[in-house]
Amino acid sequence: MARKITNFFERGVDAVLFAASPARYRARKHFRRMERDYEYRDAYLLAMRVRGYRAASSSTGKAPWGGSGGSADREILTDLPAMRNRSRELGRDDSLGSGLVKTFISNIIGTGMVAQARTDAPDLNNTLEAVWQERRNALSLADDLTHGEAQRLLMRKVLEDGEVLRKVVYQPGRPVWFETIEADRLATPGGKMTAGNMRDGVERDTDGLPVAYWIMKGHPGDCVAAAMNQGADAFARIEKQYIRHLKITDRPGQTRGVPFCHAIMQDLRDLDLLLLASLKRTQIAACLSIFIKTSALSEDMLNVTAEKYGYALDQAIEPGMIFKLYPNEEIQTLVPNFPTPELGPFIVMLCRRIGAALGVSWQIILKDFSTANYSSARTDLLEARQVYRAFQSWFIEKYLNWEWLIVMGDARLRGDARLAGVSDEQLAAVQWIPNGWQWVDPEKEAAAAEIELRIGTTTLRELCAQKGQDWEEVLNQNLTQPFYPICL
């Protein structure tokens, strides 16, 4: 009876919607069929994959130009699972892909960015930093990570998966902590697919602003059914103020993030196949492949050759072995012909393509500076550091500042006497210092830094920040020494 009432109500809504807006009626009909007709849904998703990201294509041939002109979500959402899985495979099993991810994480995060309070009162700065130091390594309880390890994990997921979520967790009697959520768990419940303000797990208001995220309570890889077949009871609705969706955004209106290496997946795969073919060629060349050729009939050959070796024609070759051939027999060898000397330049060419997509040089891709001089190596590193700094600034603005406010605000609400009377503006005054990088040639760069300090084109704060140091600590330490180097 209830089912009949529901069907009657749906038909009534469809009739009204068809009269008012045929386009919305078709969309509603499509999503309802996507929920109930699995064959229709699979066929539709397959058709959508025809146009989208080449990194998600299963074609082994050369793909032609295939721009679809679709929206960001239309091109991304259906291809995202395949791209994400392949990106993870490259980061897990591919030596070059794994090395690329580690290189970016080491240069962007290092051992972890360090928080420094920046109020006008030095004593208050020390107090705020002391509160933070007590809590920073207990913010990832579920994964049992230090703050530096958590930063590295978040950046890895952003690079590999294109996105990651970080949710605030409040528990009675325990200071606030954060849960790291993989992108697979962000999805739309089956009963919510027809909602016009839902897009792949992200709920938006009428102005298009994200207001909540629908998170599966368990990873879909642990479930038998797909995420879209799970009901709303298998999801948790998290309001935006309690969660951060860290993603790489390339287009306006993009709901989900795309793996950072999506443009070079095929190049990495081609490089693997090239090295595998070269390895096989070397293995074959290391073996002397010999074939016995005869002009006799096959039955004659068996009498002549097989009887000699006990009818075992695949003979093992031993050092010093001499074949005694019978009439009409001769030996031919197989020598694979592969241009091994050309392998090195071809690898460099592929790495140039990969580096151009990522914004770094091929020397950084291969970690090979054997052919570079000081000027070229420094130029390559400076160019790459521009890319790293962009990620550092993004990570600070998108996540770390928000995390600091949540932790310090929780400490104040829990009655920490050290934070009594601290204003919201003072609580939010924080600066994050990345690890920085060492100089390529310390003698030359130190001389250049001294000149810049003298003519006023840089400051001690900027120089120390480049090396991941606190300029105030450096200044105080130098002032306690007999000679202050900058005053010389």
Strand order of the largest sheet: 4-5-6-7
Mean pLDDT comes to 77
Task: Please report the number of helical segments.
Answer: 17
Report the portion of residues in β strands.
Answer: 5-15%
In which range does the helix fraction lie? Answer: 40-55%
- What composes the largest sheet? 4 strands, antiparallel
Given helix and strand content, the structural type is alpha+beta
Distance linking N and C termini: 92 Å
Protein architecture, described:
The chain has 488 residues and is of the alpha+beta class. The protein has helices spanning 2-20, 22-36, 38-48, 72-76, 80-93, 95-108, 122-135, 147-161, 265-285, 298-306, 343-358, 362-366, 374-413, 424-428, 442-455, 460-466, 471-479; strands at 114-117, 163-171, 174-181, 198-199, 202-204, 210-216, 235-239, 243-247, 289-294, 329-334, 430-433. A 4-stranded antiparallel β-sheet has the order 4-5-6-7, with no helix packed on it. α1 packs antiparallel against α2 and α7 (122-135) packs across α13 (374-413). The model is unreliable at 224-229 (pLDDT under 50).
Q: Which key phrases capture this entry?
A:
three-stranded antiparallel beta sheet, 488 residues, four-stranded antiparallel beta sheet, flat, alpha+beta, 17 helices
